[in-house]
Amino acid sequence: MQIAEQVYAVSHGLLVRNAVSRQHGKDVAMVVNRAPLERRKSGRRPIVNTFETYGNSHPQNPALDSMQMAIIKSGKAKGTGILFVSYSDPSKPGIMSIWLPALRKIRRINEPSYEDTWVGTNLTYGELVLRKPEDEVHELLKEDVFQDCLPVMKLGSREVNRYTRKLPASQCGHKGRAVYVVKSTTRFENWWYDYHISEIDKETFAIYRTVYFKDGKKIKTISIDWQSLEQEDPRIQYPRYIYAITHDNGIDSMVYVPRSTVELNQDLPDAFWSEATLKKFGKR
Q: Residue 165 — φ and ψ, nearest 5°?
């Protein structure tokens, strides 16, 4: 549980006041999604959306736990804004506000389900935002050394566009890092996975790879290239890329965040995380 709590702090930005990723020149974060293998015809390009994110992990209002905002910058969903506010009271569900530019309306809903997926990816809100250490039972299997290169989405020449040609190559820089190997079993009944096994850096508590299992079968693997943000605390990292593949159908997604887009502890008031900001950005 102590390891899981450290991982949660790192992956949810609890070690900084706020963190943003916004377009810097031609550099912009992107999410790339591909169809199942059986529908992936030769030359069919993946769906690409560029985006900006704004995370506030320490709101001044003690009733609030965190505020997360994402703005879609390109594609058919351009201008769509998502604001998710979670509360310190665990019995109070979070609120999600979505700005729909085509309708020029805000839609408000209760927090998404843990298994709902984010922006068309095979990454769930549970994995990205909602799941807490107490939602699982954790077992330290062993201490080890990470031996592999982290994979990336491999695109054919006809699948590449002006955005995806900037995707990074496979990351081998984490080879030789000492890791904890932790098995985490869900406490939820009839869940989409039974347990997952994660390889976690012993110094930074960054997860390099998580493999999910259901009925003893490997169903999904998520690889994350965590990179330093040059802070005094080595745990302050950011996910340069996330690559997730669902093994039974080959659906894969990749999120890439260029370092030049990332800024910490910006002078932004809590009021910035608001429906007014969603509307403002959605009108650009």
A: -65, -15
* H/E stretch holding 6: helix 2-11
pLDDT value of residue 284: 59
- Number of domains observed in the structure of the chain: 1
| Amino acid in position 220 | K
The domain in which residue 175 lies consists of: 2-282
Kindly state the average pLDDT of the residues 93-113: 92
| DSSP secondary structure letters along the chain | -HHHHHHHHHHTTTTSSEEEE--BTTB-EEEEEE--GGG--TTPPPEEEEEEEEEESS-SSTTEEEEEEEEE-SSTTTT-EEEEEEESSTTSPPEEEEEETTTTEEEEEEPPPTTPBSTTSS-BHIIIII--GGGEEEEEEEEEE--SPBP-----GGG--TTGGGPPPPB-TTTT-EEEEEEEEE-STT-S-SEEEEEEETTT--EEEEEEEETTEEEEEEEEEEEE---SSTT-EEEEEEEEEETTT--EEEEE--GGGEEES----GGGSSHHHHHHHHT-
The whole-number pLDDT of residue 175 equals 97
Q: What is the CA radius of gyration of the chain?
A: 19
> Which CATH number is 246's domain given?
2.50.20.10
- The arithmetic mean of pLDDT across residues 86-96, rounded, is 93
Cβ neighbours of 174 (radius 10 Å): 22
| Two structure tokens written together for 173 | 């820089």
